[in-house]
Amino acid sequence: MDVTLGVWAATLLGIVALVVLDFVTVSRTPHEVSFREAALWSVFYIGVAVAFGAGVWLVAGSGYGTEYFAAYLVEKSLSVDNLFVFVIILGQFAVPAIYHQRVLLVGVVLALVFRAVFIAIGAAALAAFAFTFVVFGAILIWTGIGLLRHKDEDPNPQDNLVVRQVSRIVPLTDQYDGARLSTHVDGRRVATPLFLVMIAIGSTDLLFALDSIPATFGVTQEAFLVFTANAFALLGLRALYFLLKGLLDKLVYLSLGLSVILIFIGVKLVLLWGHEVNPSVPHIETTTSLLVILGILVITAVASAIAVRRDPERIAHAGTVTEPRPATEPDPGQAP
Predict the structure, then answer these.
(1) Domain map of the chain by residue range?
(2) In a 3-state reduction of DSSP, which class is residue 76?
């Protein structure tokens, strides 16, 4: 896919403009986001993503258009799991509701930066070493199996190594001071819990990038499509959070569905490397990948609805890749 520097520049400017628009029109003044407001912004961002995909389809052809929509669908589905973790972080740190959108917007910006770096590294690695497909595939299969084993558990933000180290080094207070990241207590400057929340969100975004970027490269090897699919999925994340916040605990099979998707894409990447080495090795076409991923998501949603109807007390979990730290251990990130 031939993408000129001018197209890259225009795309980046458009994404920056959308972030600025989000901040100026919505997140600048702290307030609780209504369902109607979240729904309108969600429709807007999905519309932008679909319009961009339609442009790719018309200009670059149906093949690249299909790859973009497959990548966007992968990122959008994985972003719902991000929301689970964001809910847990915001809940554990007792962030006032009026500041949720500010935290999420910062998280989106950090995620865009981290993923741009990972995409550049991933694209260079794939171009230089075909075996990178196997490495990416192994990462996704390992992640999918880990998520499958711990699908009914929730991650503990205090397990985050960055959060734990920062909380040991930086003086903290357990009192919020508006949207400030630091304040004065007894004449001493200390960080507010909101600072630790930003650290938790940012480092969590970094960890999610390790899974989502290989997953997106699993459906398209075009860096431009990988980046734009990630960007448009992330831009709608804040609105999606407020839209689905009350429904997340009903998606009881989401972690199971995502684990299957990750394993499927991991296998696809390994087969793709095998096909390049030996053309007789079968590989999975992008259109097939799109249909499989869409089918898994539909089955996950329907099965979750049936399960919750049968057992209204059942609650969904974000799932975690590794064994969570026992609840009996003290939380080193707890503010003094």
Answers:
(1) 5-310
(2) helix
